[in-house]
Amino acid sequence: MQSRFVTADDAPPPGGREAGGQREERAVIAVLVVFCEVAFWVLLAAGLALRYVARKPRLGAAVLLCEPLLEVVLLVVTVIDLRNGAEPDWKHGLAAVYIGFTVGLGHHTIKWVDARVAHRWFDGPPPVKPPKYGMARAAHEWRTAARWILAAVVALGLLQAAIWYVGPGDGTASLQGWQQKMGLVIGINLIIAAGYTLFPKQAPKDAAAEREPADRP
Questions:
Q1: In a domain, 135, yes or no
Q2: CA dist., res. 56 & res. 130, Å (int)
Q3: Residue 111 pLDDT > 90, yes or no?
Q4: Could you give the dihedral angle defined by the CA atoms of residues 106, 112, 113 and 117, in that order, rounded to the nearest 10 degrees?
Q5: What's the CA dihedral at 68, 74, 75, 77 to 10 degrees?
Q6: For residue 3, what pLDDT is reported?
Q7: Could you say which of 26, 60, 125, 192 would form a disulfide bridge with 50 (CB–CB 3.0 to 4.6 Å)?
């Protein structure tokens, strides 16, 4: 039996099986992000249906409590992908951002949808509108900004953890790009909230007294 060395002619061409396998692994992350987003709304609809249609509030609450499991699955798959040697790209960054925004905004989004579904179809009380004027509006904007900033900070932490895990090099450029975007999210929310604080909108003299504010998602 003859043995021979692998030459350049024997090497797989660029974009061949190995490159294709890496592309497939990265595609899994992107598909999983989409799946988690769809599953979030499916679980939300199922939980509300059980609560109001089937009159099983405990079972509905149990379904809604399954929402965080989606982020756990996405986080585990992303870590495994990086551990197996995948080069970090925008899809890994997107996964970190999705998890961060679900942590910061997910719970409030569920409450926001719940209140409106209850009012529109099941004789629940009308949702209280946010204030329009003065420092009450500023306080509302700061609460909104706090949720978005929390989402961005969680995403920043996950992105930085991925950068430390992968190690220094050009491969982390896409993750650092996502970090810059999260910094922009924080800055925009701070500017908006500060604007309402420094330049509060004044109510018309004949404006009726408003009710206490309710946060928006």
A1: yes
A2: 30
A3: yes
A4: 160
A5: 140
A6: 45
A7: 60
How many CB atoms sit inside 10 A of residue 108's CB? Answer: 15
Tell me the percentage of the chain whose pLDDT exceeds 90: 63
**Residue 8 resides in a domain:** no
Q: Is residue 6 part of a domain?
A: no
In the chain, the percentage of residues whose pLDDT exceeds 70 is 82
Q: In this structure, which amino acid lies at residue 74?
A: L
Number of structural domains the chain divides into: 1
Structural domain including 116 reads 17-198
Residue 139: Cβ within 10 Å count: 16
Taking the CA atoms of 80, 85, 91 and 93 in sequence, report the sign of the dihedral they define: positive
Q: In this structure, is residue 109 part of a structural domain?
A: yes
**Minimal CA–CA distance to 92: which of 81, 102, 100, 84?**
81
Residue 164 to residue 141: CA distance in whole angstroms: 34
- Which contiguous run of DSSP H or E holds residue 13? none
Do 97 and 163 contact (CB within 8 A), yes or no? no
As a whole number of Å, the CA-based R_g of the chain is 24
